[in-house]
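Q: Predict the bound structure with D-mannonic acid.
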Amino acid sequence: MSAIETLGPGLLERLPAAVQKPAYDRASLAPGMAHLGVGAFHRCHQAEYTDDLLSLKFDRWGIVGINIRPPALAGTLGRQSGLYTRLIRDNDHVEARVIGSIVKVVDSMESPDPALAVLASPDIDLVTMTVTEKGYCHIPSTGALDLDHPDIVHDLANPQAPRSLPGILARTLELRRSTHGRKLTLLSCDNIPANGVILENVVRTFAEMRGDGLADWIAANAAFPSAMVDRIAPAVTRQDLDSVEQRYGYRDGAVAVGEPFRQWVIERNFSGRMPRWDLAGATFVDDVTPFEHLKMRVLNGAQTTLATLGVLAGLEHTSDAIADPLLSVFVRRMLVEETLPTLTPVPGVEPHAYIEQSLGRLKNTAIRHRNHQIATDGSQKIVQRLLNPIRDRLKQGAGIGLLSVPVAGWMAYLILASARFGKHWTVSDPYAGKVAAIADAAGRDAPMLASAVLAIDTIFDPGLAADETFRKAVTSALGELLSGDPMAAVRRSLEQDGVARLKRSKQSAL
Ligand code: CS2
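A: Predicted complex:
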């Protein structure tokens, strides 16, 4: 019996016909950019766009993939010389392709030195990153650098041995200034609002605290474009890895799985050389804001809603939650009636059609996106997905009865994970401890619980937290979500909203 081979450069020429492979000479690809946070999303998105670009217009744009947090890459992607299989799944349809744009991987969990050596190198003209929302060490409600964050406290005391993203990037820029002085573009690909502005903010604040003119040098030599990124690419499972072996006959420890849809809108704000991703389907624009609002409020807003309410309803994946008749009616009405009027027009996009397209994507049963995965770090997500549209609605004097339900859903998700409420599931969220302490003190008293959570001003800005309409809507939804019939909150909000709409239409008919 012959042993099953592992993917690597030697296998490229012998891949089965059903697997596409790089259409360029990979052996001559040299590194030009680095990426921090090589997870499933990067492998399905920026690395694929780069692979497309390399086959259209070959240039020195190989990616060095760096992880400063687990998982380690050496034993998976490293072992395969950066090669991996990217599967696109659309219900029963599968499309396989080996991506070749990652030329090297670097693990830098124990010490920042391996990462800094790459990032400060004159060969690197661009750093992209997907480090999750909380990686920026900012305060969600304001975007400012969180000076109490333990990693920031550590890095300001040990700037040569940083462990946070702002500390590592400030040190990178400091090293570049003192060695070769080459310019750098730092491109955030995370789902935080105005991600370029937030990234620039945290790096600049850190550099200002370091002094020595570093912040001024950064202002003159670095650019922080904002970007909207989109493709659903859930955490990879054992089954995904096995499916490559079963279908194509080779082993791959770094498979990535995504949906067919992808989008990348990048602010035209660069410092030095940039890859022409616009030739490979990305869009360069002057202002990303309308695109970013559209994506985070509609697609991500729907995901967070279906995830937290889905868990409360006992459903496992996004596709299960949207298959639930009640949740599916709820999420569509929430988006159409409350979210849509808050969107800034995006040229060429009809918002109703965008909502339908987004809901269609979430129905893809081959994308096994766990509700618990999306609910992870909800405290870092609800501002841009739910609270910002709520604030806009309140300014318009418009209703927020539906958007308030998933906000209460996020609260209930954390509260029910606390010991006091029976530890229904394990959560991963920087605010889990804080909410558990609130649950311990307040018990089942929904008004007390809601009031204490709304008082967390790093998530809820005080103006919003004081709004009576919002407080009332969140409090009543929370009470129901914590009851034996959590979906009562969803049903009631739909009924109330229906009555309110009827009243409005009667008034306007008079
Ligand atoms: C998801 C996103 O886990 C999450 O927070 O909502 O990763 C989402 O799948 C992507 O933003 C889609 O582009």
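A: The longest strand covers residues 84-90.
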